[in-house]
Every structure is written in C-alpha cells, then in structure tokens.
What we know:
CATH class of chain A: Alpha Beta
Strand order of the largest sheet of chain A: 2-1-5-3-4
Oligomer: heterodimer
Low-confidence stretches of chain A: none
CATH superfamily of chain B: HUPs
Mean pLDDT of chain A: 94
Largest interface: A-B, 21 and 37 residues
CATH architecture of chain B: 3-Layer(aba) Sandwich
Low-confidence stretches of chain B: none
Largest sheet of chain B: 6 strands, mixed
Structural class of chain B: alpha/beta
CATH topology of chain B: Rossmann fold
Shape of chain B: globular
Distance between the termini of chain B: 66 Å
Strand content of chain B: 5-15%
Strand order of the largest sheet of chain B: 5-4-3-6-8-7
Order of helices and strands of chain A: EEHEEE
Number of helices of chain A: 1
CATH class of chain B: Alpha Beta
Helix content of chain A: 10-25%
Shape of chain A: globular
Helix content of chain B: 40-55%
Order of helices and strands of chain B: EEHEHEHEHHEHHEEHHHEEH
Radius of gyration of chain A: 11 Å
Number of strands of chain A: 5
Amino acid sequence: MIHVRLEPEAKDIELHRIKTVLGLLNRLELRPTMALVVRDGCLLTPDRRLYNNDHVLVRTVTSAG
Amino acid sequence: MKCKRCKAQAVVALPSHNTAFCEECFYLFFTRQVETAIRRQKMFGPDDRILVALSGGKDSLTLMLELALQGYDVTGLHIDLGIGESSIQARAKVEAFCRKHSLNLRVLETASVGLAMPDVKKYIKRPVCSVCGKVKRYYFNKVAREEGFDVLATGHNLDDEAARLFANTLRWDAAYLSDQGPSLPAAEGFVRKVKPLYRLTEFETANYAFLKGIEIHSAPCPYSQGASFTNHKQLLGELEHRSPGSKFAFYDGFLRNGRPAFQLLEEEQGDELAPCRECGSPTSTELCGVCRVRMALSEKKREAGELA
C-alpha cells in the first residue's frame, strides 16, 4: 500500500498494487509532466520504484488562476 | 533514469527535450533557457531596472529568484486584490520570500484605489477574471512607469503562452495575436514588457521552485473556478504527451511565421490610442477600461448605500 498526499487539494489517499511512479501517475490519471512526485523530500522520475508503505506527495503543476 | 550530463541519479525527466537531469544539471539547463530567452528576444541588459510582477505562485517567484541569481537589478511588485483569505495567504508568501532572499518589494492594494475585487464581483456585470487581469496589467504598467523602471517582467511560462495563443487562435483575434509575444517594446504610455520564462514549461518551473525550496501560494483563486484557460492547458498537455515538443513548436512557429502577419494587419486596421481623460493611460476610447470600471463601481456602491 502507498500513502499519497495530493496537493494542492490537501487530500490523503491510499493506493494498492502500485509499483512505480509512472503506475501511480496512471492510476491518478495524470501525465508525467503534469505533477511532481516526491518521496522523503526528493523528486522522483517516472521510472522510479515505489515500495510498500511509501509516503508520497503528488503535486499537480497547472496553476488554476 | 540517469542525468544526461553527469550520469548521476536524475530527479527531473523532460520528454520534450528527450532528456533527464540531476538537481545541479537541471539548474544549469534552467538558467541557460532563461539566458537564451533574454538574449534572443533582446529583453534587457545588466544595467536595466526590472520590476517583476509577483503573484506568489511558482512562476513569478521562480522568475524573481533566477533573475536575482543571474545578477539583475530586480524589484518585486505584488498586487493585493483583497480577496479574503486567498489574498492574505498570497501576500504573506510573497513578503516572506522577499525577506528570505533580501529582495526589494512593493505592494499595492487594489482596495486603496477603489477596486477591491470582491466589490467588482458583486457589482460589475463582467467576468471578474477579465476585470482582475485588466486591473493588474494597468497597475503593473503604472507603477513601472511612475517609479522609473526600464522593464516589467512577468512569470508567464510556455504553457501560459501556448494556451493564450490557442485561445486567441480559436477566436482569430487579430488584435491580440498581433501583440502576443515574450517581448513587447516600450510604446507611448507603456513600459517594455518581457516574459523570460517563455521557453520553460509549467512543469519545469514547478521543479525549479521545489528544488530551490520556494514556498509558493498554490491554492486556486476562489473566483477562477471553471476558467477556460485551464481547459486549454489540459488539451495542450495531452497533445504534448502524444507529441513531445509540439507546444514549443506551436508557439515558436507563431512568433516566427504568424505574428508578423498579424502585426501588419493591426497596423492597417488597429484602433488609434489616445490618453484616457481621467488617468492619461493609453486607450482606444475616451475613458480607459480601468477608469470605466472604477467609476461604475463607485456609482453602484453609492446606489447601494455603501458609499457616502
């Protein structure tokens, strides 16, 4: 299970059976250049592996006005 | 994924450039893109005084920091729109950022000039985003001129510019298409305006802001829900995903091949500008748009008993 913090919505969700950053973005219906993905304060590229109990921040980049 | 320059672990992947970078090499890439924009579009030189429009978002704060790091003489201008908690938070982020980096800042409150946005939303029967944009552009230009700045810089990025071009093209708006670009020369009543981030995407500025530890105001404006601009960005984002590089090609191609034609058309058919009778700003009508809004607002508030 991956713990995901969504920003700027400030919403927390949990996702199962996610193995990579790209998989996470696909599950959230986001393209790789539409969001930053951060683990332990470090940016992750789409190919990076995610592990059980990871806490990940997903921050969408499109400014909404 | 490895950094294309130094082979360290990459932290940013950029499909449109078919590359990836570690933190240090990404800064180098980012700085070079800004340097190229400034040089190719002849935006400003090392002796120019630059006023940077600061909203508190990632793009404007990123621009301010990057120009300061490149050694330019920059001063920030934040316009406090008076939209409740949203404006309070945005202003606090801008003030904290400028304090942290020892950067000059001016703040202008629109309420102090009779244009608080909640009043505009309540009394003016026009889209509030349109009026808000007009008011901000007016005061950015006014402050820059009155305080002797050589150039006004805004944090518009490639996504902003491509989305605006897309919207203008959907309407075939010749007037807007004639003067859309990353560098607009000074003209009677107008200071020079530049967009040094126009070669960089929103994703790239977001990565820069994160890596530099810039605390940004990211909550959307409570008045901007359903703005078509965001939909256009999403459409172009999908196109970019399927065909990396297409966003820049669309915008750059317009600058090279489309804009000159619209500029010629506008020279033939465009409206003549004259000073506004109230404030002296250039306008194609007797009263400029901002003075018209200010007067209408004052009148409606008086009718409603909110003004003596």
